[in-house]
Design brief:
The strands form 2 sheets. The chain has a 5-stranded mixed beta sheet, sandwiched between helices. Helix 4 (74-82) crosses helix 5 (93-101), helix 8 packs antiparallel against helix 12 (273-283) and helix 11 crosses helix 12. With 335 residues, it is α/β, with parallel strands linked by helices. The protein has 13 helices and 10 strands. The longest helix is centred in the C-terminal third of the chain and has 20 residues, at 232-251.
Length: 335
């Protein structure tokens, strides 16, 4: 397969940029730039793109030595990145946006899960399809997580009364375990992450927040403004490599290659191959929005960001007057 096939239908400018980026000779060891990356959590299906790019050697060929550490949640990653401990953070960019609004100098440099993936898992076959159907049920959620501020607005948008729902406020691991054990009737979560994990124990459907007017871009990569300025060449290599990897996984059906790269890069993680593969498939449709049609994966739409800001302003997470360009940059994608 030629280099120009990697991004079929994604724009001639990006095809040319990609070809140039990966036709250059490998740089000398002394020219390497080290980047430290903090993941959102432990390795799971979404990391297939990251680890495939590393396994293919594209980062090193572009002069980047990437050090990757597991994370403990998007909020923690955002805070650590803001304090200067890492160069790149993998996180829900909605969490980054609230930190940015409070003065942390962060921006999203590439967002791959561009569609809202937050929703409520309900047992398959339950017939529960709207927030109204959750009245009288036990719903597990995490008040201190991204979903917390949106709960009341979610029920209101679905013509439901939140006071009629038994809200179980627990931490992330506990809420999933409660749901899988049948001790909660439903759970608020990132749907494509959990559905494959729940398939064997409690097959599930979902009530999506996006269907009720909430636009919340999810997993992407963020950096401080200082890193964007001082390590732009290295970040360009990083974004190009990860984007290339995801197009290979999704467009060329190289999911197995991506999962295999995860297993090799994280042998201690005890990754379940079936679940990891299922997560990639479950996330597939969330890579795209109507405003990103014809653009490379990772490219960010100003219209999507405007809608996300409006969603967060409704619940008081972002102040009035915020502009989309405050929160992201597409400078690592050709215009």
């Amino acid at each position: 397969m030629t280099q120009l096939n990697f991004f079929r239908g994604r724009g001639a400018a990006f095809l040319c940029a990609l070809a140039i980026a990966f036709s250059a000779p490998t740089v000398n060891a002394q020219e390497m730039t080290q980047l430290k990356l903090r993941m959102a959590a432990f390795a799971f299906g979404f990391n297939a793109g990251l680890f495939l790019a590393m396994e293919r050697g594209w980062l090193k060929a572009g002069g980047v030595e990437l050090l990757v550490e597991d994370g403990t949640g998007s909020t923690a990653t955002v805070n650590l990145l803001g304090s200067g401990q890492y160069d790149i953070g993998e996180a829900a960019v909605s969490a980054m946006a609230t930190a940015r609004d409070k003065g942390m100098p962060l921006k999203a440099i590439a967002v791959f899960i561009r569609e809202t993936d937050l929703g409520v898992l309900v047992p398959k076959g339950s017939g529960w399809k709207t927030p109204k159907d959750l009245e009288g049920r036990k719903l597990a959620y995490t008040a201190g997580s991204l979903e917390g501020p949106f709960m009341e607005a979610f029920f209101k948008a679905g013509n439901a009364n939140m006071s009629k729902v038994e809200m179980l406020n627990v931490d992330l691991p506990s809420k999933i375990n409660l749901y899988l054990a049948g001790k909660a009737d439903a759970v608020v979560t990132t749907v494509p992450f959990i559905v494959p994990m729940a398939a064997a124990k409690r097959p599930s459907d979902a009530i999506m927040f996006g269907d009720y007017g909430f636009v919340l871009p999810s997993i992407g990569y963020i950096a401080t403004e200082q890193t964007i300025k001082n390590k732009s060449r290295a970040l360009q290599t990083f974004v190009t490599a990860i984007t290339r990897a995801w197009h290979e996984i999704l467009d060329d059906n190289k999911i197995d290659d991506g999962v295999a790269a995860m297993l090799k890069q994280r042998p201690q993680a005890k990754i379940d191959v079936a679940i990891a593969r299922g997560q990639v498939e479950a996330y597939r449709s969330f890579f795209y929005t109507k405003n990103t049609k014809g653009k490379p994966l990772g490219w960010q739409s100003p219209e999507d960001w405007a809608a996300a800001i409006a969603s967060m302003q409704k619940v008081g997470l972002i102040r009035a007057g915020a502009k989309p360009q405050d929160f992201y940059t597409n400078e690592f994608y050709p215009r």
